[in-house]
Amino acid sequence: MDRLRFYLNDRLVEESGLSPTTTVLRYLRDRAHLTGTKEGCAEGDCGACTVAVLEEDGKGGQALRAINSCLLLLPMVQGKRVYTVEALKEGGRYHVVQEALAGELGSQCGYCTPGVTMALLEACHRKDFDEPWKLDAQMCGNLCRCTGYRPIRDAAARVAGLKPEDRFARALAETKPEPMELAYSAGPQRFFTPASLPALWDVLDANPEARFVVGGTDLSLEVTKRYAEPPLLVSLEALRELRALEPRLGGHRIGAAVWLTELEDYSRTACPALERMIRYFGARQIKNRATVGGNLCTASPIGDLAPVLIALGAEAVVLSRAGERRMPLEEFFVDYRRTALKRGEILGFVDVPAQPSGARTIAYKVSKRRELDISSVSAGFRVVVDGAGRVAEARLAYGGMAARPARARRTEEALVGQPWTEESVEVALSRLDEDFTPRTDHRGSAWYRAQVAKNLLRGFFQETLAEPSPRLQTHHAATVQVR
Question: Which of these, 88, 361, 374, 380, could form a disulfide with 308 (CB 3.0-4.6 Å)?
């Protein structure tokens, strides 16, 4: 199918001949002449380009999601509904989110206002505002330097969870999902979205050099910042098998194509250590597109999910036409930005086993700012303490300390068999310098990283004394909380 088909503000649009690496932002402004959507950073940090996309929610229903259009490639909206700020006014009346923002004096220069408004639209139709921190998390991806955030937050508080009977509510109730399957080409570039695993294997057999994409929050930066034009992209977004998110054998199966907002909601009760890391993974707009597989397969040494999943004992399940093979997740990362995937293989699932009795688990992220930042050091810890108060098992995984996410095995060895006490932790920490030789870069010096890595283990001991897997509290200043 050499034609893109999607809905823009409820109007059916069909396009051909456009580069498959055209971003939705550029399409809106240059082709559709919907210039309410603004370009600020072109990397997903400022939120000025936020649009709302109606798509499947992974549970058989539909969801309205705020998304950065600067990171969304046009073929990714095949069969979906895209709404811009121009769609808000209906029947001559402003939408409730527009009225709330204006009423709270939440706009001054106005450049960021369309993106803020579309983030408010998602808030308006969310059903899960049951904790105060979610309001801040909803709006943290929108940068405003004029009004400050209090009036914007006040507007968000007015509309959060209202679910008015507007055109978006009707679309949520009445829209039937349309196929995302796509085989698109324009000039020398091609983009495939297979709808089944057999179809994927056929594409890969014919195109072994293909690059995979799902959410695009990492790959799209090559387009917006380096002006790259990848010749062949294969999207895994339409593979329902990869959207699995469910209990399994006392643990959890997490599909590679699961959005991080879905995993955050699931982990809230199922796996607090994961929820804790995802809280500050990125803005709501980023987590609405970023996927588990995308974060792991970039094999970044500072990828936030790897340390906590390694600490939890997760396995990578790799799929190919030949079947599946499994490996401990720490073995999935073989070097800097390199994984164990072979040609013709994909990461299908991450299986997290049932946690042992007596396990204490936690995840930490340390960065220069709390919201929307890349880690200087991240960590995931699991220590199992037996009935005698001794350490039966220790899994201490770090990011940002080496060329790939890795366990502190010498430190683990120093803990196992010892009483779980502050003194034993201090003795074991002397081995951490043997485990890692961190580098100095603009995110932190080698000395800083080594010191933070030790302090995180100290904080882990203190924080898990009262509760084995503590959640972040609503108001806090860091991911380390010692009372």
Answer: 380
**Tens digits of residue pLDDT in 286-312:** 999 999 999 999 999 998 999 999 999
Contacts of 58 (CB under 8 A, 6+ apart): 243, 245, 258, 259, 262
Q: Is 0.85 topped by the overall pTM?
A: yes
Is the per-residue pLDDT at 254 higher than 70? Answer: yes
Domains and CATH numbers, the chain: 1-238 (3.10.20.30), 241-352 (3.30.465.10), 359-463 (3.30.390.50)
Do 397 and 407 form a contact (C-beta atoms < 8 A)? Answer: yes
For 370-408, the pLDDT digits (tens) are 888 889 999 999 999 999 999 999 999 999 999 999 999
Dihedral sign (CA 305, 306, 311, 316)? positive
